[in-house]
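Researcher: Structure for this, please.
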Amino acid sequence: MSIEVRVPTLGESVTEATVATWFKKPGDAVAADEMLCELETDKVTVEVPAPAAGVLGEIVAGEGETVGVDALLATLNEGDGAAAAPAPKAEAPAGDDAPAKDEAPAAGPSVDVMVPSLGESVTEATVSTWFKKVGDTVTADEMLCELETDKVSIEVPAPVGGTISEILFEEGATVEAGGKLAVMVQGAAGAAASPSAKPAAAPAPAAATAGKDIEHAPSAKKAMAEAGLTEAQVQGTGRDGRIMKDDVRKAVAAAASAPAPAAAAPRAPVPAEDAAREERVKMTRLRQTIARRLKDAQNTAAILTTYNEVDMSAVMALRNQYKDEFEKKHGVRLGFMSFFTKACVHALKEVPEVNAEIDGTEIVYKNFVHMGVAAGTPQGLVVPVIRDADAMSFAQIEKAIAEKGRRARDGKLSMDEMQGGTFTISNGGVYGSLMSSPILNPPQSGILGMHKIQDRPVVVNGEIVIRPMMYLALSYDHRIVDGKGAVTFLVRVKEALEDPRRLLMDL
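Model: Predicted structure, token format:
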């Protein structure tokens, strides 16, 4: 049964659109609601889904053509009988290469390997490592490759068992969320297709680089002319690098929002003998993001740091007294982080602006505490978030910190686990830091820096005694937090740690 694929409603007062990209070609099998093509109007991009499962028949309106509302775009052969539609294509050329064509049906259906969801607001990733190559046979859920986003690494499993017939993006390439990474031939017979599949992978880069033969969307050409941009200044996201109207809009917005480039100090000339011994390594996306966000924090917020010191005697004595019993009952070690988390939660209640953020001309106060705990990993610094830390017990906090730390070191944290924090604690003391000024984690307004515990002489009741002391540093956004509030916060943390009973009495 043949079904017509027509132009959907394009919106109020919009009567026509341009066919921007066809994602399928005649003979391709499609599932119901799978995207067939993309239309572009003056204002929006509209995706056209398949009205039913079947095989795409004839494409009536090709890329670049202008179509009206309800115009015929293509025909779709529905149902099981449609599956036979591509067969004549394989049988038609009965020439010398007919045997090679006949092997394709025996190899099983083709399955696309897609880029998985990358997390909220994350639209692209870099292909970090391919664990398999074209022609390799894999089982369902076996890891094919690893993607790297701004914050996390994501493993891509095989959707089915079979053979990899084509890899579309090599290591180092940038891919978009929902994009196609590779193509597999399903089933055990897929291995037989590997010899013919290997050369099939070669044309992929050529198609991407054949920029001169790419016909960009008409609306994109018009927008580039109006904005005074060249094709080289716009990153195309359509098929084969085709530039879409939305790509031009993004390029214009990026140019408008980009700060004027600072006069970067040129690298001093390096003697040839030294240059030969240097090694250049491209920064990972995570490291680039860390660099950008930290610099953005300094450029955006008015960061100021206030310091204090805390006598850790009481916390250490309490920990030593109960650590064995605590671990036996709760199955987790009693560390210092739960004490600091509790102390910060206590102080944030009294000084809520340290737990708030600026949104335009408004201050957003958070009636909850999602505590970020900075953790160093081999890939760089990450900040997993412990949600609703203000409602957790010591044991719950210790368990959450242990789990997040382990997932961070293994690179298994999801984007959701690192978003939404309202305040952050950074413990540089584990690396031996005696004192430092932590940088804010935007859009948060405060971050507490912990440091090394070191025996120092202090005066207590007029006598010099040796006590385990730690320097504390609170960096805060002076746009929202005044000096009085910052100092009060740090004093309350100090008081709670030097006399943990205050936490029980809410003092």
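Researcher: Any notable elements?
Model: Confidence is low (pLDDT under 50) at residues 80-106, 189-212. The longest strand covers residues 463-477.
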